[in-house]
Amino acid sequence: MNFSYLVPCEGRRNRICLVRGVTTMNSKHRCVKLNDGHFMPVLGFGTYAPAEVPKSKAGEATKLAIDAGFRHIDCAYFYQNEEEVGQAIRSKIADGTVKREDIFYTSKLWSTFHQPQLVQSCLERSLKKLQLDYVDLYLIHFPVSMKPGEELIPTDEHGKLIADTVDLLATWEAMEKCKDAGLAKSIGVSNFNRRQLEMILNKPGLKYKPVCNQVECHPYLNQSKLLNFCKSEDVVLVAYSTLGSHREDKWADQSSLVLLENPVLCAMAKKYKRTPALISLRYQLQRGVVALAKSFNEKRIKENIQAFEFQLTSEDMKVLDGLNKNVRYITLDIGAAHPNYPFSDDY
């Protein structure tokens, strides 16, 4: 899986898809072909923001991202901003900037909806907020099942997570039904380790393979073992926290290293006359990883789309490989006691 050679995607205006040995025709909207035949742009725009950030900011940033050239928008029920993001997408359709089929929109099934009978209702809630007929990709957000209800993170009086026991294979069957119903074009997983992904892939009577596994991935956590496994199974690895800069108290280890201040990355940025963020994004694209870039800053949004405009040498790719420290910013410790907590395994 290499994103260097791309041609226009069938049925997608201005889309580009992967075909080996064909010269690149355009610098924007490059796509990878998924195992179900659909196409995913290899550079996506992330919309998560901490609770203190006004929800309207996600909508404003999504409009800026579409204007800058992003066509892959990554969101989730858990982010609680799909209404604003949906409005932004629809406004860009209304003003003629894009058509619905030009946008690749991802949403995610939250952990309080893992019970099979609840799966479709979570997607329908997202669609209602978005005012869209379908999502392009629907993911199981996190393998840790939580008590159903309106609370996003249900906890007891001691602040301990109230977990639920659900067979994720039954959850996956309900995801397959969402695809059959036309509510999601493609389905996949997020934050699954190799063992959990393999469990889905080896499911008796599997109808649809996950098209992707979205995980934290950046030069300090390059996920090389998981990436190789995903490639061997024709599952795309999608990287979040690609810039390693997520510092929210609730989820992130505040003592962890700041990736974009790494001297090797900064020196490389100087060499290529780019930003450290662009070096990090380009690194992922050249490894065959779909990269999500999150910023609500107009200048940085416009800058991030430039990841297609240069190429790192194979020597520099090896140097960046050497930065791996297995540092995970998003540990989601609240779910650590759950049997499906994914981050205890090696990968």
From TrEMBL:
Q: Which residues bind substrate?
A: 141
* Record keywords, A-Z: NADP, Oxidoreductase
Q: According to its UniProt record, which protein family does this protein belong to? A: Belongs to the aldo/keto reductase family.
Coiled coil: which residue ranges? Answer: none
Organism, scientific name:
Heterocephalus glaber
Q: Which domain of life does this protein belong to? A: Eukaryota
Show the GO MF annotations: oxidoreductase activity
- Annotated NADP-dependent oxidoreductase domain ranges read 43-324
Query: Cross-referenced Gene3D superfamilies, in alphabetical order?
Result: NADP-dependent oxidoreductase domain (3.20.20.100)
Q: Which Pfam families match?
A: Aldo_ket_red
The site feature described as Lowers pKa of active site Tyr is recorded at: 108
Biological classification of the source: Eukaryota, Metazoa, Chordata, Craniata, Vertebrata
Could you identify this protein by its name?
Answer: Aldo-keto reductase family 1 member C1 homolog isoform X1
Active-site residues annotated for this sequence? 79
